[in-house]
Design brief:
7% strand; 52% helix; mainly alpha; 7 helices
């Protein structure tokens, strides 16, 4: 065996990994995010300093408060291009949840530790 032990860390949650997003919803999400008008506007907003701070506080910092250095560093290395947006569009559309992984997860043969935080 190449993998002798496995650690799963949340997010994604167990529910996210075992619940498929319907294909119609995936298509709608992806077409919206790749739309030249609405998708471009959405990404311009999400790539703004305000949005980086807001979503960092909401999803990355349990205290709900990232510091100025965090936001500065996040914005400093930020380069926007169509190529860098493509994987983000696919992920946010839900393509990683195109099917349930429940069978695979429940039949893992190696010892598995699942870590889930209080804010997940």
């Amino acid at each position: 065996e190449l993998v002798s032990k496995l650690v799963l860390a949340s997010p994604p949650t167990w529910e996210d990994m075992t619940t498929a997003i319907p294909e119609k919803e995936l298509s709608q999400n992806y077409y919206f995010l790749t739309s030249p008008i609405f998708g471009n506007l959405a990404f311009r907003l999400l790539e703004s300093r305000w949005a980086i701070e807001f979503f960092s506080n909401a999803f990355l910092f349990e205290s709900g408060s990232c510091d100025k250095d965090w936001v500065d560093n996040a914005c400093e290395d930020f380069s926007v291009s169509e190529m860098s947006r493509t994987p983000v569009q696919a992920f946010n559309a839900g393509f990683c949840q195109h099917r349930s992984f429940q069978t695979e997860l429940e039949t893992l043969t190696q010892p598995t530790l699942i870590l889930s935080g209080t804010s997940d």
